[in-house]
Amino acid sequence: MNCKRIFFILVLVFVSCTNEESQKLTLSKGYLIEFEEFKKIASHKNVKLLDFRKPEFYKESHIEGALNIWRTDLENKTYPYKGMMAEKEQVEKLFGSLGINNEDIIVVYDDNGLCDSSRLWWLLQVYGYNKIKMLHGGFSLWKEENEVTTKVPEKSVGEFVFKKPSSFETHATKEEVLAALYQKKLILDTRTHNEFSGKRQKKGAVKAGRIPDSKLIDWASAINFNGDKKIKSVAELKEIYKDLLPYKNDTIIVYCQSGFRSSHTTFVLKEILGFKHVKNYDGAWVEWSYFNDLPFEKDSITTIFE
User: Fold this and answer.
1) pTM of the predicted model, to two decimals?
2) Contact status, residue 86 vs residue 74, Cβ threshold 8 Å
């Protein structure tokens, strides 16, 4: 083999390795991703972008390359009430239909302060899949600064299977909540004050009220609700949740109406503030209110139905 040929082969190997290296995803730690970082990886073949908003909003405009999912896609419809998390097989089928494969990084965004995105993050935590990023800031902020589209990308068929065993470290059932209630463990209600007091009854619940002895901290207090809807600074979060700090190493069960807002609080407490044992009650108030034998409290006559 002559020197020219050896040199040519070495060049090919170097170019091949360089191209391979350039295709590798280098991401910051944690589950949040900022706009600028997302732009750098958006076109990567192993990045799958999900728009977690109502289909009618998605049709009006969305981020280029995004496919749409909504709450009903992640719901187990075999229960007599709504909102329970989908089974593994249902999620696998959904992801496969969206062209998602096991090696992919899922980037999800919403327009609700990461409330909906957090539900997907939480569900995937339960099923042992952690390759997910939540786009910090949401669609409205993105639209102010970047182009959007109405073009729906073509769907491919993916092969997606949860390979790790499920972990219920962040998942609570109504039986666990009832046990926690009698064991005097902390139960955190993340809804509004009107829901907590029983003045407001949202669609899906059989009655208004709250789980007895639960403590109220509205999930929305953790974000810039009237601004960019980003999560507040660590210092601000510590002030908001200062009454919970003595329970940082204890089990805390979090709930809301249907498990979405409480998923967000679970994320904030666990991933940002470092609480050790935070469990999101999947059935939430919708399930709890369905059973007449489960205890509840209310302070107000219910006057708001929606």
Assistant:
1) 0.91
2) yes
Query: From CA 221, how far away is CA 204, in angstroms rounded?
Result: 24
Q: Which residues make Cβ contacts (< 8 Å) with residue 223, sequence separation at least 6?
A: 113, 114, 229, 230, 231, 232
Cα–Cα dist 141/44, whole Å: 23
pLDDT of residue 142: 97
User: What is the C-alpha end-to-end distance of the chain, expressed in Å?
Assistant: 80
* Dihedral of the alpha carbons of 297, 188, 83, 140, in degrees to the nearest 10: 120
Instruction: Give the neighbor-by-neighbor strand order of the sheet with 32-33.
Output: 32-33, 132-135, 105-109, 47-52, 67-69
Residues 112-137: tens digit of each pLDDT:
999 999 999 999 999 999 999 999 99
CA pair distance 247, 266, nearest whole angstrom: 14
| C-alpha span between 256 and 231 (Å, rounded) | 18
Asked if 218 and 270 count as a contact pair (C-beta separation under 8 A), the reply is no
Amino acid letter, 12: L
Catalytic residue status for 3 = no
Catalytic residue among 3, 17, 115, 256: 256
Nearest to 206 by CA among 283, 299, 261, 123: 283
| Domains of the chain with bracketed CATH | 26-145 (3.40.250.10), 171-305 (3.40.250.10)
> What is the rounded CA–CA span in Å between residue 27 and residue 22?
13
